[in-house]
Write a structure and sequence with these properties.
With 363 residues, the protein is α/β, with parallel strands linked by helices. The protein is built from 11 helices and 18 strands. 26% of the residues lie in helices and 21% in strands. The structure holds pyridoxal-5'-phosphate.
Length: 363
């Protein structure tokens, strides 16, 4: 007796995707991004599955880092947004977290903190995304202030984040690289390390040369690109989001399906009800025609997505299916990007919004 809805997490696929990131990075170290519950895959389990391969982890905030520490993850953990308040610098010191600094409030909090050990600092530069980061032309001044502080460990990392690297035809990434170079070159210090690449840059921007790369989405086996790309095509989806048929009926031409009756049968139709809805992270905005996979065949969602159920038109299936038939919502054979495309969003959002209601099953 269990609802047939779950997300099977393939930890071997996760490790293979991470190994691909490592291989593409040649001498760079790879830091898996496990923020937002590891893009919905379960942060602690994902971190544990990569424990013997990952030199460090990246998270958005200190709450996530503390959860990893409580789960006996003992590698360094980088807080990508840096400390949100001065007390977080001291907590970071106690737990061996690394800090990405992006503004002068954070910088002063680090310099003024009472720490037991020098802390590992990453300096983030705003090279065009205009979301976080110091300006490239203040690089020397920011670096010196930190370098003079006994609170700061001497091997600092300079970092930036790309806004358009997933668009292979957009040369904005090259402009960002050139702004980063300005910042990097203005600092007179031989041991500076660099960190730039997200998944898209790891997969397809060989001119980005990193000491630390930061793979996220690719680890979970999905491509950041809208079209085929030889490296991205080797990724294996880690999540298999699945459910099953719980009811079947035939309806006459002219009958409608679901809330607001917004889909009407144009022919006598076989309609299956599947035990998954927006309460499970299936997108409420999935349009008529969004595919689900049944026996390897893409079948269209019809009518509005309900909280706990969707309806699928099986009229064109060659063989009849019965209650209990397994259904893939996304995973191997049906990329989350394709479902996202039908729902006006991106795969990143669908994965990170998966609620706790969907049991994650690790294999
Ligand atoms: C989330 C994040 C990444 C990973 O991006 P992907 O596109 O998922 O690979 C890298 N760097 C920073 C700063 C991030 O916040």
């Amino acid at each position: 007796m269990t609802r047939p809805t779950s997300a099977i997490i393939d930890t071997q696929a996760l490790r293979d995707n991470f190994a691909l990131a490592q291989k593409l990075g040649t001498s760079a170290k790879s830091m898996p991004m496990v923020k937002a519950n590891a893009y919905g895959h379960g942060m602690v389990k994902v971190a544990e599955a990569l424990k013997d391969m990952a030199p460090a982890y990246g998270v958005a905030c200190i709450e996530e880092a503390l959860e990893l520490r409580q789960a006996t993850i003992d590698q360094p953990i980088l807080l990508l947004e840096g400390p949100h308040s001065a007390d977080e610098v001291e907590i970071a010191d106690q737990h061996g977290f690394w800090l990405m600094l992006e503004n002068h409030h954070q910088l002063e909090a680090v310099v003024k903190a009472k720490l037991s050990n020098p802390i590992n600092i990453w300096i983030k530069f705003d090279t065009g995304m205009h979301r976080l980061g110091f300006q490239p032309n203040e690089a020397q001044q920011v670096f010196q202030r930190l370098n003079n502080s006994p609170n700061v460990s001497k091997s600092m990392v300079l970092a930036t984040h790309f806004s358009c690297a997933d668009n292979l035809d957009n040369d904005f990434t090259k402009q960002q690289l050139s702004h980063f170079k300005t910042a990097f070159d203005s600092i007179d210090q031989p041991n500076l390390l660099k960190s730039l690449a997200n998944s898209a840059a790891i997969l397809d921007w060989p001119e980005v040369k990193d000491d630390w790369q930061r793979p996220g989405y690719m680890l979970y086996g999905n491509t950041p690109f809208a079209r085929n790309q030889p490296n991205a095509d080797q990724l294996v989806p880690v999540m298999h989001f699945q459910s099953a048929v719980i009811s079947i009926r035939t309806i006459a031409t002219g009958e409608s399906v679901g809330y607001t009756a917004n889909w009407t049968a144009q022919r006598p139709s076989t309609i299956a009800t599947i035990a998954v809805g927006y309460g499970d992270g299936y997108p409420r905005h999935a349009k008529n025609g969004t595919p689900v996979l049944i026996r390897g065949v893409k079948c269209p969602v019809v009518g509005n997505v309900s909280m706990d159920m969707i309806s699928v038109d099986l009229t064109d299936l060659a063989t009849p299916v019965d209650i209990g038939e397994p259904v893939t919502l996304w995973g191997p054979g049906l990329g989350v990007n394709e479902v996202a495309h039908h729902s006006g969003t991106i795969g990143y959002e669908l994965l990170t919004r998966m609620p706790a209601r969907v049991p994650r099953i690790y294999k």
